[in-house]
Specification:
The complex is a heterodimer. Chain A is mainly α. Chain A contains 15 helices and 2 strands. Chain A has helices at about 5-10, 20-30, 35-40, 50-70, 100-140, 140-155, 160-170, 175-185, 185-200, 205-210, 215-225, 230-250, 265-270, 280-310, 310-325; strands spanning about 335-340, 350-355. Chain A has a two-stranded antiparallel ribbon. In chain A, a hairpin with a 7-residue loop joins strand 1 (about 335-340) and strand 2 (about 350-355). Chain B is mostly helical. Chain B has 13 helices and no strands. Classes of the chains: A mainly alpha, B mainly alpha.
Chain lengths: ~350, ~325
């Protein structure tokens, strides 16, 4: 089944997802004929930022799988004679106060971080899609109730809520932490998806499907959802980021179970043993940098999606490069303009130029 | 007017939801830990205090859930949040009253600084897009991806341990008596610098990125082109036309992300042992002091709600479209 938007409504507003693929081809291949459907669809994957982000994520996924096998030491093995050693050949990232190998703890801990982050992200995104899309699609009183619900969850600070819930459960497993993070983290995505569904709901192609007598679930599943793909992806990325931060924070303050290693657990032990007063930077700096690297890669993917969704952000970067080559200093009021020649449906030629106001 | 009524209803419903959540969370959990703590302190507590804890935690098996709910509300209106186990037998409300001003002072000042600074930097970066200014974006992404507490640890290592320029423990010099004279105030300010710096560093990045994106979007609007075509000075177009419009989503974003910022700063307080409500929450978690945890959560949520109302008022003042309806 082909993408309904690009065939039936190429003239949609430029800032929506639906329209993004329509203007896409014009930028990627300068003055060349618009690329084929399939290529346009994977344009997102040709964005340098998202490629870099996805590669870093891939690296961490591999670490999460093989980490426990390639760890050079047992992360729990205590060795009093090697207390607080700085990085060396036998201990790449030094040792803790009890002589545990930090590098191995980091490797073993990757799995916990990734499993919790991604599972919570998946559940929260599913909730956001169900709640957001149905709120936007059904409208009326149902919409009022569901948007009120998501706004309430947005205003209530989630971290204290997660803390008081997990603190009251004895013996936290990964599963409870995943569920608690997911149940408190869906609201933002639901809000964004709702507003996007609202704008899609009255588009011509949806009306056409309705006039054809399509059933409601079919309209949602085959007309609405494909056009929300980019936003769902970015919601997923955001919820994973938030879940990773929440999980590491929980481990750091000692609410999550300390028997499983994750990067937050390392920071917990570093803080409680006063690592920073003793100058043992190797104990807490690498774990934080790993969190930062993971977060940055997720953010990079999101930038890629953003540029894919909002053509103005994308054209800015491309225009800037062109202007730099021509030694023009970008200044106020230049407006990137895409001229679509042969407007309706036939987008074979396109031209881009930067107007100077 | 209709808009205002909607807002009022929303805030009331949210407050109700927060209280109800606080009522149900301990009831959905296995009640044994509270029960065991209660039996431990049985002899030392007045029957009134025991009764109030029974109401708060739903240990009162005889009455129906609805009755418990009504009792709970009644108790809240009397300002009774139970008794802390950790600082036995201090009422939870007085512990919160001691710690909340510190947090509101620190987080409030730091958040406002970070918002103003981040929005201005973001406006500038968005205006100068495509130049060297874009190089700052990876840096801001880095700061927005790391946990607040880790930045706190790094800040302590640099300023407190290596250079030893500023204090990083507590909220004032322990040798001083809390009295509003210059010595005490300067000590408070000195102790607040590093925590505030941490909050500004970690929360500013989000404001920079969203403001930059809004500026990029707004800059290609027709009114900006017109303003420029009129020959207005660049500065005036940037601040009076582009930034002025780009800042509106920033403010509604400010209201909504406040919950997140507050969550981050609570943990940050623990890093600096800053005697605010977050540090107290951390201690309560460590000591399994359930009444204190519940009370702190309720107060944090209500404070965020009040801050939201304030942000809403500011938004109404700034955006004429919202006032037109009334």
């Amino acid at each position: 089944m082909s993408d309904p938007t690009s065939t039936s409504s190429p003239q949609a507003a430029p800032t929506t997802v639906a329209a993004a693929p329509a203007t896409n081809g014009t930028f990627s291949d300068d003055l060349a004929p618009a690329p084929a459907m399939g290529r346009r669809r994977f344009l997102f994957l040709r964005n340098a930022k998202s490629i870099l982000g996805l590669s870093i994520i891939g690296f961490f996924v591999v670490l999460a799988i093989v980490g426990p096998w390639i760890a050079p030491h047992d992360p729990n093995a205590v060795n009093p004679s090697a207390s607080l050693e700085s990085p060396s050949w036998s201990h790449w990232l030094g040792t803790s106060q009890t002589g545990q190998d930090i590098f191995s703890q980091l490797l073993v801990g990757t799995r916990g971080v990734m499993v919790v982050g991604f599972s919570a992200g998946i559940i929260a995104t599913a909730l956001a899609v169900v709640i957001g899309v149905s709120a936007g699609f059904i409208g009326g009183a149902g919409d009022e109730v569901l948007s009120m619900l998501s706004n309430i969850f947005l205003v209530i600070p989630s971290l204290p809520l997660i803390i008081i819930i997990t603190a009251q459960i004895e013996g936290n497993s990964h599963l409870t932490i995943i569920l608690v993070i997911a149940l408190t983290g869906w609201a933002w995505g639901a809000r964004v998806l709702r507003s996007q569904t609202l704008s899609l709901r009255r588009r011509d192609f949806v009306e056409a499907a309705r006039a054809n007598g399509e059933r409601r679930w079919r309209i949602i599943g085959f007309e609405i959802l494909p056009n929300l793909t980019a936003i769902i992806a970015s919601t997923f990325i955001n919820t994973v980021t938030a879940a990773v931060l929440a999980e590491i924070t929980l481990a750091y303050i000692g609410v999550a179970s300390l028997s499983d290693w994750n990067w937050g657990t390392i920071l917990y032990w570093a803080q409680s043993s006063g690592a920073f007063q003793q100058g043992a930077w190797w104990w807490y700096v690498p774990a934080g940098l790993c969190v930062a690297l993971l977060g940055m890669s997720l953010a990079l993917i999101n930038f890629g999606i953003d540029e894919f969704v909002n053509p103005r952000l994308r054209s800015t970067g491309l225009n800037a490069r062109t202007l730099r080559q021509r030694h023009i200093r970008p200044r106020v009021g230049f407006t990137p303009v895409v001229h679509e020649v042969g407007a309706s449906g036939d987008r074979t030629k396109a031209r881009k130029e930067a107007d100077h106001a | 007017m209709k808009n205002l009524a909607r807002k009022a209803i929303f805030f009331l419903v949210t407050a109700w939801a927060a209280v109800t959540l606080n009522f149900f969370v301990p009831r959905l959990m296995p009640g044994d830990p509270v029960q065991s703590l209660l039996t431990r302190y049985q002899g030392q507590m007045s029957t009134d205090a025991i009764h109030s804890l029974y109401v708060l935690f739903g240990l009162d098996e005889q009455s129906s859930l609805w009755q418990q709910y009504l009792d709970y509300w009644g108790q809240l209106f009397r300002g009774d949040l139970g008794i802390s186990f950790y600082q036995f037998p201090t009422p939870v409300t007085s512990i919160i009253a001691q710690t909340l001003p510190w947090t509101i002072g620190l987080v409030g000042v730091a958040t406002v600084i970070s918002f103003l600074l981040g929005t201005s930097i973001g406006a500038y970066l968005g205006w100068r897009r495509g130049t060297w200014a874009d190089l700052l974006i990876p840096l801001t992404t880095f700061f927005s991806s790391v946990p607040y507490f880790w930045i706190g640890l790094i800040v302590i290592t640099l300023f407190g341990v290596i250079w030893q320029v500023l204090p990083f423990y507590g909220s004032y010099d322990p040798g001083l008596i809390p009295y509003p004279d210059w010595m005490f105030i300067s000590s408070v300010i000195e102790h607040g610098i590093l925590p505030a710096l941490t909050i500004v560093l970690s929360s500013m990045a989000g404001w920079i990125l969203s403001m930059r994106n809004m500026m990029v979007t707004v800059s290609s609007e027709d009114y900006v082109t017109v303003a420029h075509a009129k020959g207005l000075p660049e500065r005036q177009v940037m601040t009076g036309y582009a930034a002025r419009n780009a800042v509106l989503p920033q403010i509604s974003g400010f209201a909504l992300s406040l919950g997140f910022v507050v969550g981050g700063t609570l943990v940050m307080e623990q890093v600096f042992s800053y005697q605010g409500i977050g540090f107290m929450l951390f201690k309560a978690v460590g000591a399994k002091d359930y009444p204190l945890m519940q009370g702190i959560f309720l107060i944090i949520t209500l404070s965020v709600l009040v801050a939201n109302i304030l942000a809403d008022i500011v938004y109404t003042i700034l955006d004429p479209r919202t006032r037109k309806e009334s």
